[in-house]
Structures are given as C-alpha cells and as structure tokens.
Amino acid sequence: MYQSVNFSNFVDAFAKMDRKDNFSYEGLRALFDYLELLEEDMGQPMELDVIALCSEYSEISDDEAEYSEYIGDDAHLGVNIICTLPSGDILVREG
Description:
By secondary structure, this protein is α+β, with helices and mostly antiparallel strands. It has four helices and three strands, in the order H-H-H-E-H-E-E. The protein has a three-stranded antiparallel β-sheet, with helices on both faces. The chain is globular.
C-alpha cells in the first residue's frame, strides 16, 4: 500500500525521523523534485525511506576537496551531482 506524498509530507518525514538537519530546505526541495522525476522515469512509485535517503544522498559545499572526500580519491567534480543549489552547495548521490 502506497501513500502519495507532497513536499510538505516529505519535509515532515525528515523531521519525524530526527533528520531535518541532513539537508537544507533547498536541498530537500531539490531531492524531492529529483525523486519525483525518478519515479516518473521508472514508471512506479518509490517508498519514502528517510534513513536510506540520508545514506544515499548528501548536501555538500561546492568544493572539489570536500566532494573528493565524500565520493572518493578518484572523484571528478561533476560526477554524481544531482544539482547545484541556489546557496552554492551541491546535492550529490553516493558513488
């Protein structure tokens, strides 16, 4: 059984799981939009698993050193970037 989730529900789910500080508001918006597009591309609904999302996605500063530390030594800036946020931070998906 699946329940449709809007952005407000999405944000509330992170707060309820004590993960509201894992992403900025902009980061959560970008992640929500990305996941909705992914659902459309796959043609099936996704389960909202806040812990899994926090493990798979991160918001980091747009800095090659921090990006390399997060992804790995052989990372190239641009790989696994979901989007650049208005704040200048980037939303990335783990390797």
